[in-house]
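TL;DR need structure tokens for one chain.
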Amino acid sequence: MAGTPAHIEGRLQLPVAHSGNALDFSLADAGGFPVVTQKVASVLSELAPRDVQLFPVKVDSRSEPYFLVNVARTVKCIDDEASEEVRYWKPEDGEPERVGEYRVVAGMRIDPSRVGDARVFRPWGWKVVLVVSEDVKEALERTGATGMEFTEVTSAQSHSTWLRQVDAAREVVWRSLGQLEEDAIVPIVSGGPEWPGQRQAWRVIHRTGRRLLLVTDGLSDPHPGHEPPSVGIGLELAIETDEPVKNVQESWALLVLQRVANEVAEHERVRKAALTGLLTMEVSGKGMPKSLVTQEGRVGVLLGLGSSTLPQHLDVPAGQVRLVTVKTLLPSELAYRVQHGKQGRDELVRHFVESGEEHLSRAKRSAVV
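>> reply
TL;DR here they are.
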């Protein structure tokens, strides 16, 4: 297990502790040492002669030749940042000879630039793992050898790493739009449909002209387990008002944004429409200003109205995300939209743009139709 060359004298012999089907690759002595058949040994000796030592071994009850593999190379290559979790041995752990080595490595990722010409090796500080190069893996698979299982350790980053990168990319955009409050708004108890990254958050941005912009922060999170990483639902939502707001967390604007976000997260039809153009929908009017609530207790919203002061898209590591504006409609405007269909919606949009109001949401204003 040292990951260094070894000198062995005498004939090696291994007992069979558990009966079963013979494998071309198995691990002896609590999983420490590979024991392989001739076809596996041939691949290793041909492709990685400087990385491994092959010692003939007699396996009880088996007549064919076997070899014990000593992986004689160690490489310091674990990428702490890209791995899901790493923890080191500390002095207080009571293992002084192991201080500075890894105690836990979960979701291991390595930095290929540190590997050099090594093809088969043990990672420094975490020698319970065997790492092989892609060409060695493919050669072993071509033999049809049994007993092997491979896990990618270079190309894929951990989900938590992608989340951190997406957070950073979105924050760059949010800060470019105004003064971003440092703390995000997150629910104490998560409710409603799951967001892609299984976390819900809203950000608060103070803009010029005493405007308040609220945005979702998580609908574009990558889905866990997807390869390559996704852009989640592919959008984030934004609602902006120039009306005074004393308490953002108790404001009607945040309620609207939360309810629209839940509809988008839950219904594929709503998502597709929001990604491609304009969409009119209704959400619950509970807790909303009476001026916005219809007789049926609903609030109408228009999604996707263009803005001259907000970007249409955000760039995140996995691609481009659409920023979809949310504009509240007065009951008479919603009725007009329902009565006149697509033409009515386009007429509303034209009036909002010509008035300079664009995507702004207000509870106190005059109807445009």
